From TrEMBL:
UniProt-listed InterPro entries: Aminotrans_3, Aminotrans_3_PPA_site, Dat, Ectoine_EctB, PyrdxlP-dep_Trfase, PyrdxlP-dep_Trfase_major, PyrdxlP-dep_Trfase_small
Gene field: ectB
Keyword Transferase: yes
The protein's annotated pathway: Amine and polyamine biosynthesis; ectoine biosynthesis; L-ectoine from L-aspartate 4-semialdehyde: step 1/3
First-tier enzyme category under EC: transferase
Source organism of the structure: Catenovulum sediminis
Keywords of the record: Aminotransferase, Pyridoxal phosphate, Transferase
PROSITE patterns per record: AA_TRANSFER_CLASS_3 (PS00600)
Protein name: Diaminobutyrate--2-oxoglutarate transaminase
SUPFAM superfamilies (alphabetical): PLP-dependent transferases (SSF53383)
Cofactor(s) the protein requires to work: pyridoxal 5'-phosphate
Length: 423
């Protein structure tokens, strides 16, 4: 019996899909303890947008550690933190015309979501937070109350409260205007929906099945929030940091959210780091009112700063992501066209695309077949029916095509057909 079987809690889950022991990782590849290479189309669920151990970033961290740079400093001022904030300001916020203050929360995405929800409630004096069908925001009590997934909600052990669920863009088909429904409910004093402190939304639902909100819907939601005195929180923990092609997933829509949560790939190296961006006028926090021992991880500041300078100071990076996304679309569109809409549908945008199948069993057999061919790829969606391509943004074209071809072959084997993918 392995040490994992002996000791590790049943709560562990990813290793069930990928039952090997990894010990090394570089770029787009993970290596197991027998030296086998696996192409990584999971990327730490979007925490490794720049791949494993990116050389420049690793070197910056090694240099900092060797110079005895501060590793832990509570939330005290450090040069590492100053450099990170200045770089975020100069490389990301200022060129995009965004004006935000930054709150360092505990290091997980859920920590950032908790802080964002708490702040919106404090500012507005209201309790209710509206989240959306199939949304995922983490599993601590506040965050899981905004999460749709029954499996995660069921683990809470107490009644989940303080949130209302509303239909996401396209939930009833893209012809049904869910914003109109929400507006009606919020305008009716007897609808039973309390005035919201905030809306919390993902522009592309990462765990929920790569459901995409249209730019019009997102802008409409922003207006609706204003109309009803609520704050707009964009949870960009998964879709942000370039996953959809731009740094923030809401840039195409031209949104100016009141509050933004970032985590997963913000450290650029897979280190734990989470932040909340808030419009300056919303900064009603009192010192220490929301605290935590690990707010601001100085090693992650070093890697985050280097990632922003390496990838985001150069606008070619965004162009390359868009080109790779087009390649993914062309492969998946060909598959979907071949299989027909009753069997497969294209989901997502940017480098968070996937194919939706009729049920989770089909998707599961496809990802298992991919793993047999040394490709790590996961499912998402309310029935785990979406096979989700989450390659590093930095993947080279040859590896991307190699992985996509493994996916196409696995799908062809599942449907016992030849798929004509000519790109
Ligand atoms: C992963 C994720 C979270 C939660 O982050 P954790 O680090 O797992 O707590 C919240 N929101 C979104 C959109 C996520 O993808």
């Amino acid at each position: 019996m392995s040490i994992f079987e002996q000791m590790e809690s049943n709560v562990q889950c990813y290793a069930n899909s990928f039952p090997v022991t990894f010990n090394r990782a570089k770029g787009s590849y993970l290596y197991d303890d027998e030296g086998n290479a696996y192409l990584d189309f999971l990327s730490g669920a979007g925490s490794l947008n720049y791949g494993h151990n990116p050389e420049e970033i690793k070197q910056a961290l090694v240099d900092y550690i060797m110079a005895d740079g501060v590793a832990h400093g509570l939330d005290m001022h450090t040069t590492a933190k100053a450099d990170f904030m200045q770089t975020l300001q100069d490389v990301i916020l200022q060129p995009r015309g965004l004006d935000y203050k930054i709150q360092f929360t505990g290091p997980t995405g859920a920590n950032a979501v908790e802080a964002a929800m708490k702040l919106a409630r404090k500012i507005t004096g209201r309790t209710n937070i509206i989240s959306f069908t199939n949304g995922f925001h983490g599993v601590t009590l506040g965050a899981v109350s905004a999460t749709g997934n029954q499996h995660h909600r069921g683990g809470a052990g107490v009644p989940l409260s303080g949130t209302s669920r509303m239909p996401y863009c396209g939930y009833y088909g893209y012809n049904a205007d869910t914003l109109k429904m929400i507006d009606k409910q919020l305008s009716d004093p007897s609808s039973g929906i309390d005035a919201p402190a905030a809306f919390i939304v993902e522009t592309v639902q990462g765990e929920g099945g790569l459901n995409v909100a249209t730019p019009e819907w997102l802008l409409g939601l922003q207006s609706l929030a204003q109309k009803h005195g609520a704050k707009l929180i964009v949870d960009d923990i998964q879709a942000g940091c370039g996953r959809t092609g731009r740094f923030f997933s809401f840039e195409e829509a031209g949104l100016k959210p009141d509050i933004v949560t970032l985590s997963k790939s913000i450290s650029g190296f897979g280190l734990p780091l989470a932040v909340v961006l808030l419009k300056p006028e919303l900064d009603e926090w009192a010192p220490g009112e929301h605290n935590g021992t690990f707010r601001g991880n100085n090693h992650a500041f070093i890697t985050a700063t280097k990632a922003l300078k390496t990838f985001w100071a150069d606008e070619n990076f965004e162009k390359e992501v868009v080109e790779k996304a087009q390649l993914v679309t062309s492969y998946f569109q060909a598959v979907v066209d071949d299989l027909g809409v009753t069997h497969a549908r294209l989901k997502g945008r940017g480098l968070m695309q996937g194919i939706e199948f009729r049920n989770g069993e089909i998707a599961d057999r496809i990802t298992s077949r991919c793993f047999d061919k040394n490709l790590i790829v996961e499912t998402a969606g309310n029935h785990s029916q979406v096979v989700k391509c989450f390659c590093p943004l930095t993947i080279d074209k040859a590896d991307l095509e190699k992985g996509l071809q493994i996916m196409v072959d696995a799908i062809a084997a599942e449907f016992k057909t030849d798929l004509k993918v000519a790109v």
